[in-house]
Design goal:
The protein has seven helices and 19 strands. The chain has 300 residues and is α+β, with helices and mostly antiparallel strands. The protein has one domain: 4-Layer Sandwich (Double-stranded beta-helix), CATH 3.60.130.10. Strands 1-2-3-4-17-9-19-6-5 form a nine-stranded mixed β-sheet, covered by helices on one side. It has a three-stranded antiparallel β-sheet with strand order 16-10-18. A hairpin with a 2-residue loop joins strand 5 and strand 6. The chain is globular. The N terminus is likely disordered. It binds succinic acid. The site of succinic acid has 8 residues, from strand 18 and strand 19.
Length: 300
């Protein structure tokens, strides 16, 4: 999985901790970060290196991070304010900033959102300020299955045929949290009926079909099969056909890194650069992860 090794620090002063290493994966995105314990606060230099690595590789993997919810929240907050998921039911008790992603039931009741990531998406693209990035920490993993896939949306834009680029350039699309809600609710125990307040909290928004990354200036496709309901200003059939083409193009194998979870992996991805998908867990196997979600900018 990991290929080249790039030592980020050129030299290590005496008494300094082991240098941070970023090992890019042999694929379209992603890197493993070696030599970092996320339970302790980051010094400014290490933070700056991590920030750059995140912008460059879009998905960072930190192995064996046996950290507390407070430590996950503190690390996540270094990158921005945290967003609270509309499904309050699946907050970690005492920690509303953490969404429990799990297929486990206790006393017949789900303890987390078991079908999170069932369709390709970028987190919270249905909000006026979608997520900058999300962090998922593995707490309990199945013996098989449970992988998460990430697709590079900069490469999706770069490799889009010119005719498709012209068709979507400058256009907006509608994103709605409710787009697939009833469909998911019909076949899962994880989707409670929403209150009027919750529905108001996730009112549909318009986002650019092609967004510009606010920190790197790179362009990226920004539509998803989960949340995008239509391209503004196009007839329904034309919009549907175009979106289907974009969905297929943006999730091609050539753009995808498949994360096979190991115990206490922390994965930190950039929602402005990638979409992700939960590949699925066999029903009889337990899976539980903790997610924090960082607020981003208004897309442009
Ligand atoms: C998510 O979409 O945040 C969850 C992904 C996963 O469970 O693999």
């Amino acid at each position: 999985m990991a290929s080249a090794s790039v030592a980020v620090r050129a030299s290590t002063p005496v008494d300094a901790p082991a240098p941070l290493q970023i090992l890019p994966f042999d694929g379209p995105l992603g890197a493993e970060v070696i030599g970092l314990d996320l339970s302790t606060p980051l010094d400014p230099d290490t933070f700056a290196q991590l920030h750059q690595a995140h912008l460059q590789h879009h998905v960072l993997v930190f192995r064996d991070q046996r950290i507390t919810p407070e430590q996950q929240i503190a690390f996540s907050r270094r990158f921005g304010p945290l967003q609270i998921h509309v499904l309050r039911k699946f907050q970690l008790p005492g920690h509303p900033e953490i969404l429990v992603v799990s297929n486990i039931k206790e006393k017949g009741e789900p303890i987390g959102l078991g079908d999170a990531g069932h369709y390709w998406h970028s987190d919270l693209s249905y909000k006026p300020k979608p997520s900058l990035g999300s962090l998922l920490l593995a707490q309990e993993l199945p013996a098989e299955g449970g992988d998460t896939l990430f697709a590079n949306q900069h490469l999706a834009w770069d490799s889009l045929p010119d005719a498709l680029k012209h068709a979507i350039e400058g256009r907006q699309a509608e994103h709605s949290y409710l787009a697939k809600y009833e469909e998911l609710r019909a076949r899962s125990p994880w989707r409670p009926a929403l209150t009027p307040e919750q529905i108001a909290e996730v009112a549909p928004v318009q986002q650019p079909v092609v967004r510009t990354h606010p920190e790197t200036g790179r362009r990226a496709l920004f539509v998803s099969e989960h949340f995008t309901t239509g391209i503004v200003g196009l007839p329904r059939d034309e919009s549907d056909a175009l979106l289907q083409e974009l969905f297929a193009h943006s999730t091609r194998d050539a753009l995808v890194y498949r994360h096979r979870w190991q115990p206490y992996d922390m994965v930190f991805w950039d929602n402005r650069s990638v979409m992700h998908l939960a590949a699925g867990t066999p029903e009889h196997l337990r899976r539980r992860l903790h997610r924090t979600t960082i607020e981003g900018d208004t897309p442009f």
